[in-house]
């Protein structure tokens, strides 16, 4: 009985990691679609988001069933409750990638990012790709140092986000561009927040302690 | 033993409703601070968000403790898992209210909303106040018709959100105003999403069935 439960907990972890790899792909592809005005790739990200959504529902149902059937306590219960939380964050990261792809699709065949902001948005894209890879790694390894590295990448995304406010207000961009860039920068910044949230769940999982909250930015 | 558990479940529901009332106040005050450039009120919303955050942590710990101690199944387990989910949505609604207050504070003594967009943002404010009151009611009453009314208000927020894209792109607004309005409209639109998420949790709680997903908008 215990063996089956252990196997189910382990399967839960593997499926979270699989879900996180899909999110990685979505984040990378959405940014590429955005920066290269690739309509087919944008469509792909939008369609594939359904898979991420249904993985979340499936994981959730299994978590609730495991609680009901196995009545876990202590560390096992933490694993399951954290699973619920992490799948919700991953699902939101998938939504954000879809939103970025939707903006790319909406402006096609035009490009969304004006030349003046290309460097900043490219850096946000790169940081979000890195952070989503780190999320998969931290789910797989439960490495606390990696959890800390995710917070550093989130700080970078916050800084870049803040810099877009200044840039859109001072550079010569149209109102349309200002709207697009504001949304994009917000979506990228939220990737970082969700990644940090997942990293903290892993810390909680390993140590049983919730890390101190640093607050959230706009 | 069962009596104590029933009392604890009931206290959980009451505390969720209390948390929801704090969110109601935050939503109403943030909008008023925004529309009347009221710095003191904006500061109040920003400070009070800590209370909402700590209520979420407290509710979460109690949910996990109840699962561990009482090993609930079936409806009781649904109540607790839904409690975890609803407190997370309420906490996010509190964050969004704080973000609106932060924008009001940032632009003080100026106003954020240009005259051309005052009507739209006022309508978003009113719809979000109404939706946050409905959220408290649905948590208290578990009324399925009310849950449906929340979806209607969310549709209105989605429409208003879409109309701000057109307005900022066509009306004569500065890039700064475009950034502010884009963020504000996004925050208001997210209120609706979280309210719908809570309404669906209540439907799940009452019926044991998850309502069909309508997808989410940008």
What is this entry, summarized?
The structure is a homodimer of 218-residue chains. With 218 residues, chain A is an all-alpha fold.
What CATH calls the topology of chain A is Methane Monooxygenase Hydroxylase, Chain G, domain 1
Report the sheet with the most strands of chain A, covering strand number, pairing sense and barrel closure. none
The proportion of residues forming helix of chain A, as a percent range, comes to over 70%
| Percentage of residues in DSSP E strands of chain A | under 5%
Explain how this protein is built.
The structure is a homodimer of 218-residue chains. With 218 residues, chain A is mainly α. Helix content of chain A is 85%, strand content 0%. Chain A has helices at residues 2-36, 39-70, 74-107, 118-141, 144-170, 175-207. Chain A is elongated, with a radius of gyration of 18 Å. At the A-B interface, helix 2, helix 3, helix 5 and helix 6 of A face helix 2, helix 3, helix 5 and helix 6 of B.
């Amino acid at each position: 009985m215990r063996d089956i439960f252990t196997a189910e907990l382990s399967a839960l972890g593997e499926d979270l990691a699989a879900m996180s790899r899909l999110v990685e792909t979505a984040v990378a592809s959405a940014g590429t679609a955005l920066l290269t005005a690739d309509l087919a790739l944008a469509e792909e990200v939008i369609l594939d988001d359904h898979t991420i959504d249904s993985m979340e529902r499936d994981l959730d149902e299994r978590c609730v069933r495991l609680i009901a059937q196995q009545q876990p306590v202590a560390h096992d219960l933490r694993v399951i409750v954290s699973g619920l939380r992490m799948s919700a964050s991953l699902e939101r990261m998938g939504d954000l990638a879809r939103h970025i792809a939707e903006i790319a699709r909406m402006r096609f065949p035009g490009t969304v990012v004006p030349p003046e902001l290309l460097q900043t948005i490219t850096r946000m894209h790169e940081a979000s790709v890195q952070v989503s890879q780190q999320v998969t790694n931290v789910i797989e390894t439960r490495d606390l140092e990696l959890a800390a590295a995710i917070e550093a990448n989130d700080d970078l995304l916050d800084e870049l986000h803040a810099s877009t406010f200044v840039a859109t207000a001072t550079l010569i961009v149209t109102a349309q561009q200002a709207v697009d860039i504001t949304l994009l920068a917000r979506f990228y910044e939220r990737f970082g927040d969700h990644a940090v949230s997942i990293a903290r769940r892993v810390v909680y999982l390993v140590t049983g302690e919730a890390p101190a909250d640093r607050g959230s930015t706009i």
